[in-house]
């Protein structure tokens, strides 16, 4: 099938999905969860092929781990799908409704976006994840996974197709681009006649490609340098705990701390306590000159002087940038120069500085006396997360089910003309 | 100044605007309205230059009328700016706020989008309009008007600059791309380092250009074929009035009716009444075969058989497509094949068909027993309108001040770490 034919089929399926009752969509999701369990052996066998090929191709252990499915991960995927069943269906709810002076009853009703194209790499659970979230919100999806997980994805798509058939929903509700040709990605990005939104889930290069080539609105997200500013009035003892959490709990996450900004007036007192904790956590420090001297004197075990790009780096590892700043404005100036668009925090007891930081930081999520690690759909109570948007249009930060919907205006009256 | 330098200056201005109090922004708007009146002579003289050049270049009278400023239009512009002053400032309001189980107080606060690029043609009032709406919402704007209104726009930009200075806001809050080079538009569309959103206000070609070249999110809007379906249970006498309003009140508007779909069971009875009214309004009818015969028999004074593209045409004039359909599903099928994405209506007394039409139509605005002409920010009570979006991301239908904002997540706690 050509990509254009897939787009047309998805569009037709989207019309059906848009009016499918929640009960029917949930039926498909429950069937999907069941099928994941029923077909465990088949899925794991397909995954073993991918793993063998990846190992032969010399992929890193970290990469292999991302590709790997096992009974417990598969059970987790089924549980996640059942979780989506339990979430409220946003489609059909009305955002507001009022009667205008002229008698027109005007409301806005949530509707599916339509057809969503998702391009992703590695982790095969994304296939099930996205299919489930799109289905719940009445969107048709066209998926394009990485070639490393091709066999796993084929097995998962079979599971999805069985579930759709069981629930009586069109097969084209979830389609997968099987052919590996790279041009198909470019073609998908220009299929604006049929596709309403593109979600890229992958590295910076994929996002760049989508931004540059897509004629379809793209949700950009996931990247950004995360900062934490320790103000002069912060509780320094507890500050170390929050920094520890932000940096160490899951260094590979996009909400992990990258750069620590310390008010210069408390640097002498604070940095030794920081060094003690970071040494115990095997965190390497990368510091600008003034911070470097103090950290060195405090006995930092892994320490180097920061180079030109270090404060623009999302570490995704146990490395932490450290810099002294003169006040909250200097901290904000640093944020602006260094791509702060994801999660940033201030530790302070000063109400005015807290408000200044909240309003001045350009980040999707801003924290006062809390860890940057909270930026997450699950933590925010959204139940599920499609992506973390760092753009300002449509949705910002963690995107849940509602962010997979649009709305339409509805005007009802008694044969009313505009005067 | 290079476009990149303009982008950087806009970004810096946006930081200031984001925290500017409403009072200061309103001060600038009031000054802008005053300056429009104070500098009436200068603005009209500049406009006269544009008109003379346009006339020499042989532009149509309709086009000349779009370019023209006169004392009453200028007064209208000033009044519109004062209207924006009276609207609530959406920036800073919180969408929701709650305390999570772990003690994190989580809220979403409305913030400006940042820097907005606007590309537009003809009408010089757009310069003031957009500058005012962006300013009110704390967004910096970079404007690129058409060459036909260059002198008018230069005079208006002076007015805006004086107003910004009076209110103590940065000059780069509103910037205008003066050089006429076409490449600058392409360059603006790729200035994603500094610009957060592109609003094209112009013809289909401009929208296409933006969609294809922009690496910045674009708001697509304004176009779409508008339909009205007369169901079998409609009140036929009053139906003629609503159709008259939708087609005739302002044929050049994007919410004017393009295609009339008539239930075949009532065609014999209804079409003669329609013909009588349309004849009296000098509306030309373009009909598919079955409708053609009936309309001809009823004595339609201007009538031709529809060709292949006629039902894909936004007429923007006193022409109306007419087609018979077998039921509401056939009407919806026609909508889907013919780019119904703007405003569509059903006239019916059947509750099930009304709901079916509401949910099945893919339009930004759907009406039951009301004219398509209501799709308008002013009519919807938004107070002002930046554009009418026909895309599904971010905003749909008429966009007011709120649609010029984004939001940020704010988490506040007492030194809270993620568990």
UniProtKB/TrEMBL annotation, chains A, B:
Its EC number is 1.2.1.41. It comes from the Bacteria. Pathway: Amino-acid biosynthesis; L-proline biosynthesis; L-glutamate 5-semialdehyde from L-glutamate: step 2/2. It holds the Pfam family Aldedh. SUPFAM superfamilies: ALDH-like. One of its GO terms (molecular function) is glutamate-5-semialdehyde dehydrogenase activity. HAMAP family: ProA. Belongs to the gamma-glutamyl phosphate reductase family. This is Gamma-glutamyl phosphate reductase. It comes from Pseudaeromonas sharmana. The lineage of its organism: Bacteria, Pseudomonadati, Pseudomonadota, Gammaproteobacteria, Aeromonadales. The gene is proA.
């Amino acid at each position: 099938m050509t990509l254009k034919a897939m787009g047309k089929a998805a569009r037709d399926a989207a019309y059906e999905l848009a009016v499918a009752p929640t009960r029917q969509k949930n039926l498909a999701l429950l069937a999907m969860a069941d099928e994941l369990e029923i077909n465990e052996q088949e899925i794991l066998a397909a995954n073993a092929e991918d793993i063998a090929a990846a190992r032969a191709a010399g992929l890193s252990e970290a990469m292999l781990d991302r590709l790997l499915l096992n009974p417990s991960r598969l059970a987790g995927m089924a549980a996640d799908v059942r979780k989506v069943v339990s979430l409220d269906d946003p489609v059909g709810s009305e955002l507001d409704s009022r009667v205008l002076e002229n008698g027109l009853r005007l409301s806005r009703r949530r509707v599916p976006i339509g057809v969503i194209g998702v391009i992703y790499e590695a982790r095969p659970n994304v296939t099930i994840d996205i299919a489930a979230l799109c289905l719940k919100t009445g969107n048709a999806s066209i998926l394009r996974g990485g070639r490393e997980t091709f066999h796993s994805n084929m097995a998962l798509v079979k599971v999805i197709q069985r579930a759709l058939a069981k629930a009586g929903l069109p097969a084209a509700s979830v389609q997968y681009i099987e052919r590996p040709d790279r041009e198909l990605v470019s073609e998908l990005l220009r299929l604006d006649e049929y596709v309403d939104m593109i979600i890229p889930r992958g590295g910076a290069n994929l996002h760049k490609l989508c931004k540059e080539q897509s004629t379809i609105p793209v949700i950009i997200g996931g990247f950004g340098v995360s900062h934490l500013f320790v103000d002069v009035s912060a509780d320094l003892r507890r500050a170390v705990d929050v920094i520890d959490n932000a940096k160490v709990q899951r260094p590979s996450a996009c909400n992990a701390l990258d750069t620590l900004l310390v008010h210069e007036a408390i640097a002498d007192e604070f940095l030794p306590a920081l060094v003690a904790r970071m040494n115990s956590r095997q965190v390497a420090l990368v510091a600008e000159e003034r911070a470097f001297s103090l950290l060195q004197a405090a006995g930092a075990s892994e320490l180097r002087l920061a180079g030109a790009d270090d404060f623009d780096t999302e570490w995704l590892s146990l490395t932490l940038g450290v810099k002294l700043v003169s006040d909250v404005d200097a901290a904000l100036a640093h944020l602006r120069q260094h791509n702060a668009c994801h999660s940033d925090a201030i530790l302070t007891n000063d109400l005015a500085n807290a408000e200044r930081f909240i309003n001045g930081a350009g980040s999707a999520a801003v924290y006062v006396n809390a860890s940057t690690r909270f930026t997450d759909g699950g933590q925010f109570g959204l139940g599920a997360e499609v992506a973390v948007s760092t753009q300002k249009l449509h949705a910002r930060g963690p995107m849940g089910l509602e962010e997979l919907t649009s709305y339409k205006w509805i005007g009802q009256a008694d044969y009313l003309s505009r005067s």
